[in-house]
Amino acid sequence: MIFLSQTYIREASIDDCKNISEIHVKSWLETYDGIIPPSFLSKISVSERENTWVNNFKKEELSIFVAISGNDIIGFSSIAPRIYKGSHVIFLESIYLLKSFQNQGVGKELFYKALCRAKEYGYSSIFIEVLADNPTLNFYLRYSANMIEENIIKLGDENLLEYILRIDFTD
């Protein structure tokens, strides 16, 4: 576990699915307002996300971490391997943190925990998908993320620019 004063990071369990789902939805609504079409955002729900997270916990290759403040989950991160352009790589699948806990080092620790796990699995880099208008893009760029691809993705009725970033690990 990583401790940040009264906040700490631990491996998530399936019992955390409801809380993770609540954070996931709230974080999307806080972060993506004005970026993702309201018609798309209005359709996301905690119950739908909870089903997704329960299924995610059945995937052995997925690693999920939660940030705890007091007795509450305030954020989470996850990584999973994928095949990308014919190579076995690992992606940061998610990192979400309640807005009231942002800019306090918690997101950095969730990210660090994910990076450490990727290194433990023997990867020398991590890939990240991020919308071009997502304010957290700068967070990744501070960690020497290289932009390796641009894609147009469709969310709702809109096409949005998405970047794929890669961060190479140094020892």
Give structural notes.
- The protein has five helices and eight strands.
- The model has no long low-confidence stretch (mean pLDDT 91).
- The protein has helices spanning 17-32, 38-41, 46-57, 106-120, 137-141, and strands spanning 2-4, 7-11, 63-69, 72-84, 87-97, 125-131, 146-155, 158-168.
- Helix 1 (17-32) packs across helix 3.
- It has an eight-stranded mixed beta sheet.
- By secondary structure, the protein is an alpha+beta fold.
Briefly say what this structure is.
The chain is of the alpha+beta class. It has helices at residues 17-32, 38-41, 46-57, 106-120, 137-141; strands at 2-4, 7-11, 63-69, 72-84, 87-97, 125-131, 146-155, 158-168.
How much strand? 35-45%
- Using the CA coordinates, give the radius of gyration: 16 Å
Shape: globular
Structural class category: alpha+beta
Largest sheet: 8 strands, mixed
Q: How many separate helices?
A: 5
Q: Give the helix proportion (percent range).
A: 25-40%
Order of strands across the main sheet: 1-2-3-4-5-6-8-7
The count of strands amounts to 8
Mean pLDDT over the full residue set: 91
Strand/helix succession? EEHHHEEEHEHEE
What is the CA-CA span between the terminal residues? Answer: 21 Å
Note poorly predicted spans: none
